[in-house]
Amino acid sequence: MTRVALVGAIATMTSQLGACDWSLHRMQDQPRCVSHAATELLPGGACDLVPPEGTVEASEPAASEPPATVPAAYASPLATLERGQDRFTRFCAPCHGDAGDGDSAVATAMALRRPPSLVDATVTGFTDDRIATVVAHGYGAMPGYAGSLALSDRDAILAYLRVLQHRDVAVGELTAAQRREAMRWLR
Questions:
Q1: Are 121 and 129 in contact (CB under 8 A)?
Q2: Is 118:103 a contact under the CB 8 Å cutoff?
Q3: pLDDT tens readout for residues 80-116
Q4: Would you tell me which of 17, 29, 99, 136 could form a disulfide with 146, CB atoms 3.0–4.6 Å apart?
């Protein structure tokens, strides 16, 4: 390209760019709705609209889906536990350990806060709903798995976790109904 052609190309680009708005604040200076103020952006001219019924404020965590007692996706409690073990091994064990005790290679590398044991008294006292909410939406450094795990898989993980939490309980410490169920599985 000759010098004359280069100067002409630069002049053309400069004239085209001169028509652009180069304000660094153009995203901040856009028309927007301000509470208790009039606006031309919305019908009725007011920013204070009543949200549709059933909406949740963005800063408020959404209610978790209630866990099903027995997921319909699995034919038997044993199939549910096997699926829960598989999903736990893939999604939970890398941080919480195969036994759920918080002992894993990932946990030892976490300097600030290690993943908690899921089999200690604090977590065993959590309600099923609280655990389901943490699995779905995450907590602290733990991501939420609602987008990665179907509700039936999250329920299966919960069922398997409850088994892990009671693995060291003596049969004599179980209620009569729990003892009957345990004896059925031990035969």
A1: no
A2: no
A3: 889 999 999 999 999 999 999 999 988 888 888 889 9
A4: 136
- Per-residue pLDDT tens over the stretch 110-166: 888 889 999 998 898 999 999 999 999 999 889 999 999 999 999 999 999 998 887
Q: Does residue 88 lie within any of the structural domains? A: yes
pTM over 0.85, yes/no = no
Distance CA 36, CA 39 (A): 10
Domain span at residue 151? 77-186
Three-class SS state of 35: coil
Neighbouring C-beta atoms of residue 64, cutoff 10 Å: 19
Record the tokens describing residue 15, joined without a space. Answer: 């004239």
Token output for 6? 């280069």
**C-alpha angle with apex 34: 29 to 37, nearest 5 degrees?**
120
Residue 160, in any domain of the structure: yes
Instruction: Say if CB 119 and CB 164 are below 8 A apart.
Output: yes
CATH number at residue 136: 1.10.760.10
Picking from 161, 102, 168, 166, the residue whose alpha carbon sits closest to that of residue 130 is 161
3-state helix, strand, coil in the chain (%, to 5): 45, 0, 55
